[in-house]
Known about the structure:
With 277 residues, the protein is mainly β. It is built from 4 helices and 14 strands.
Amino acid sequence: MQATETNIDRRDLFTGLALAGLGLTAIPSVAEAKSADLPLNTPEENLRAIVRVSASLKEVDCPWYYNGTIYGIVGEEQPRPLYTFTGMEMYRMIHVAADEYEMIGNTVTFFRDLETNAFLYDYKNPYTGATNKVEAAVQGGKAGRGFEYSVRGIRPKMFKDKFADQPLKMWWTAAGDYIWLHDSTVYPPGMQAPRMQRKTNFIRRDQVLDPKVDSLAAMFTAAVFMPWPKWMEMGDKPGHIMWHASGAKLKSVADIPDEHRMRAMKEYPERMTLAPT
Length: 277
C-alpha cells in the first residue's frame, strides 16, 4: 500500500470522533471482573458481551447519540471550554465467523456555540483571533474498513497486522443493578499525538444476564485527547483539545433529537444507515 493511500484510509477512519464503540480495545481484566455470577470470564463471553453493548448480535443498524464540551489545553494554562457538540454514530456488526465480527460505523458530529448551543458555521478563535470556517466531524468505513472484533482481540482490519493476537479480556465491574465497562480506543501506529480515548459504558445487570437480549441498552461517558482540529488553523501553536462526552444507544434514528437528526439527514443522508444497498 502506498503512503498516500494509507493517509487517506486513516483520515476516513479516524478524523471524526468515534465515541460510542468504534475501535474498542481490551483492557486486562481484574479480579472484580471475574465474579461467579457474571458470564464475562472467557474470550468468547467477552466477545458476545461487547458485541451486545456496542451494537447487536444481529446485523442491524444501532444508532447512538451524544453531546458534550470540547476544551483547549495549552501547557500549564487552565483548560478553556471552546465549544460544545452533538453527535450521532451508527454501528453494525457483520458476523464473519463463530468467534469473529466486523464492526462498521458512521459518525456525524456538529459543533455548537458554547453559550447559545446554536450550530457553529463560523468560529472566532480565541487563540489566534481569526474567524474559522467550522467543519463537521464526519467519518465512516464500509465492510473491510471497519474493526475486527474476535476472541483474539479488537483492532482495525486494515492495520490488524500491526497488533498481535491476544485473548479478549475486558474490564467489567458489577455493583448493584449495574455493570460497567472501562475501555480505550485502538489507533493505528504513526498518527499525530496526542491521541487517546478512555470510555465507560453502563449497562443493566439483568439485561446482561438475559441471553435472549441481542442488543443491550447502554449509556456511556468518555474523554478524548486529540490534536487541534484542522479547521481551527492553529499551525504550530502548542496544545491540543479534549472532548468530554456522554450519550446513549437508541432504538432507532427517529430517537435522535430533531435538530441534529434533521441537519444530518439533509447534509449526510448516506451516513444515516449501514444497511447493504
